[in-house]
Amino acid sequence: MLEQIIKFFMKTGYANITLEQAIMILIACFLMYLAIVKKYEPLLLVPISFGMLLANIPQANLMAKGNFLYWIYQGVKLNIYPPLIFMGVGAMTDFGPLIANPKSLLLGAAAQFGIFTSFLGAGLLGFNFKESASIGIIGGADGPTAIFLTSQLAPHLLGAVAVAAYSYMALVPIIQPPIMRALTTKKERQVTMEQLRPVSKTEKIIFPIIVTILASFLVPDATALVGCLMLGNLFRECGVVDRLSKTTQNELINIITIFLGTTVGATASAENFLQWGTIKILLLGLAAFSVGTASGVLFGKLMYVLSGGKVNPLIGSAGVSAVPMAARVSQVVAQEEKPGNFILMHAMGPNVAGVIGSAIVAGMLLSMYGG
Fold first, then answer.
1. Which residue from 22, 130, 184, 310 has the highest number of Cβ atoms inside 10 Å of its Cβ?
2. What is the pLDDT along the chain (371 residues), one digit of tens a residue?
3. What is the C-alpha separation between 159 and 166, in angstroms, rounded?
4. 258 near 85, Cβ under 8 Å?
5. Could you give the CA distance from residue 331 to residue 23 in angstroms, rounded to a whole number?
6. C-alpha span between 74 and 63 (Å, rounded)
């Protein structure tokens, strides 16, 4: 009897846990703390951190072929989940501010500069082209896009890239404001912008169709992301598929978020995550995100000058594609400088443009380094 008890104990996680697994479990618990207590992007960080916890339970092997998480992970590996997430984002997002002010596309484009600077930085630190592209895309502050690209170019980095991308998305309210204040004057931050023109229903219906055609012809590898984003928005705006729109906004995106987050977190096993390369990825990701924010703000300053002081440069920081959090941060900083100043809808234009821009950049990198 005693022999059987000892044999059972030797097969438990308590008898087989390594120091590295213990560290990863502590990291997972810390991320859950940030998500639950601090409310940092909880819809994403809760499943990701719990997936990380599951991946590091000794002897569980949930990601081994044939086991529970292995089958769910195929949606990540086969790039099914990220486009479906984009469909949900499109269904929940009003593209009206971007349509009303097409110049905000330039701010979204400027904020993608962080992707390319970190791509170069990753190359200098010894990563190959495919790995550098996967790390650079963190600068777009777009988790699904980062997963979409990394799963095809550098799947061994998926855990680190996903954790970095979603962590920095969650930390937008902490990372962005100091950069925004450092690069703008009080006068610039107090600019009150004119109300956007009304956008017709026809414009809102035509917009996703035109963008899909133009972007997909330009970068065919971005078609899955851009096309699903625009399909979701068409569900929202066309007015004849309310059931599809509501399902896409709620049940579909919620289910996919659970599957995506849990399985991506589960790729962060101790042997994959606890490496010097992971620290480099986290630092490069922070640099990419910071440079993207700074680039958007600086381009906003240029638009401020060219418009004769009519553009608030703070909206440039929303050019990263953390929708709608980055736009809300622009609004909060503006109101701190001038209570009652309402720039949220102006910031939503660059914010939506950033989503489109990061998807196009991902398609470009995939077309250059994929295969």
1. 184
2. 778 888 888 888 888 889 999 999 999 999 899 889 988 778 888 998 999 999 999 988 888 888 888 999 999 888 899 999 999 999 999 999 999 999 999 998 888 888 888 899 899 999 999 999 999 998 877 888 999 999 999 998 988 888 888 777 777 888 899 999 999 999 999 999 998 999 999 999 999 999 999 999 999 999 999 999 999 999 999 999 999 999 999 999 999 999 999 998 898 888 888 888 888 998 888 888 899 999 999 999 999 999 999 999 999 999 887 788 889 999 999 999 999 899 999 999 999 999 999 999 999 999 998 76
3. 11
4. no
5. 38
6. 10
CA distance 256 to 72: 10
Contact 218, 76 (CB under 8 A): no
Element (H, E) at 343: none
Could you count the other beta carbons within 10 Å of the beta carbon of residue 133?
29
Rounded CA-CA distance 231/225 in Å is 10
Domain that holds residue 292: 2-369
- Sequence length of the chain is 371
In the three-class reduction of DSSP (H, G, I as helix; E, B as strand; rest coil), residue 276 is classed as helix
Q: Which helix (H) or strand (E) holds 316?
A: none
- Contacts of residues 181-186 at CB distance under 8 Å and 24 or more positions apart, as own/partner, are 181/333, 183/294, 183/297, 183/298, 183/301, 183/313, 184/297, 184/301, 184/313, 184/314, 186/337
**DSSP class per residue in 92-146:** H---HHHHH-TTHHHHHHHTTHHHHHHHHHHHHTT--HHHHHHHHGGGG--HHHH
Place of tokens 């400088």: 337
Count structural domains, the chain: 1
